């Protein structure tokens, strides 16, 4: 029992700084591989939504493809078929349909 106590005390004494260094390293890894790319993608989507134009082909959050017919304050009128228009929230538009189709073709 005494030998086990001595070994555990010695291991615990030097572990203070190594634990701190390991926690900082884990946070840095999480920042560069998770948080930073998500923020970058969010900014790209925000810029895309600010640049929406009438006649642009888009994809909604529900996967509906259509063309923008009108842009109102916080909503967008999207024509999904000839004569069929739906009103969607501007925040539910996620992608340019033509760019997405080109990226899927590759």
UniProtKB/TrEMBL annotation:
Membrane topology term reads: Single-pass membrane protein
Q: Which InterPro entries match?
A: Preprotein_translocase_YajC
Protein location: Cell membrane
Q: Which GO terms describe its cellular component?
A: plasma membrane
Chain ranges passing through the membrane: 17-35
Give the primary localization class.
Answer: membrane
Q: List the GO biological process terms.
A: protein transport
Pfam families noted in UniProt = YajC
Classification via NCBIfam families: yajC
- Tell me which family the UniProt entry assigns to this protein: Belongs to the YajC family.
What PANTHER family does the entry give? SEC TRANSLOCON ACCESSORY COMPLEX SUBUNIT YAJC
Quote the protein name from its UniProt record: Sec translocon accessory complex subunit YajC
Q: Which organism is it from?
A: Phocaeicola barnesiae
